[in-house]
Amino acid sequence: MEAVNTEIRLCTEKNRESTLRNVLKEKGISQLLYGSKTTLAEKIWNMCQRAPDTMPELVDYQKPVEESKDLLFGIDASITTTRSGIEETGSLILWTTPDEPRLMSLIPPIHLAIPYAGNI
User: Fold this and answer.
1) 87 inside domain
2) Does residue 79 sit within a domain?
3) Considering Cα of 63, then 64, then 67, then 70, what sign does the dihedral take?
4) What's the whole-number mean pLDDT along residues 8-35?
């Protein structure tokens, strides 16, 4: 994955929040697109509630793709869940849904994908 300019940040459940906050700060992300109906959404929302000054503006992906082109091309970054990964190839398996369409991982200049070790 590093061969195609992917940055990997290893973290544990204990330091996941601080790792994500550091990445958001390092990348200068001021708006973060996410799907509010995902398993990841509650964790992100809680992070924002605990320390709002360290989080970007959260932008919920709500409209169909056809109506979201301006949003997708104008947002700083997106964050999505992953279904699984393949360690040998560095591949992530994304499972797109209406709440996390594939374009969330393709169009914004920064895509944060959150895999869990148990799914790799």
Assistant:
1) yes
2) yes
3) positive
4) 92
Provide the domain count of the chain.
Answer: 1
Q: CA-to-CA distance for 83 and 95, rounded, in angstroms?
A: 6
Residue 56 lies in a domain: yes
120 domain residue, yes or no: no
Q: What is the mean pLDDT of residues 12-39?
A: 92
| Helices 39-50, 16-26: crossing angle, 10 deg rounding | 80
CB neighbours of 114 closer than 8 A, spacing ≥ 6? 40, 79, 80, 81, 82
Here the CATH number for the domain that contains residue 17 is 3.40.50
Q: Which domain holds residue 33?
A: 2-115
Let me know: does 72 contact 106? Beta carbons within 8 Å.
no
Q: Give the bridge partners for 77, in sequence order.
A: 32, 110
Q: What is the mean pLDDT of residues 25-32?
A: 96
The letter for the amino acid at 113 is: A
| Closest C-alpha among 108, 101, 89 to residue 4 | 89
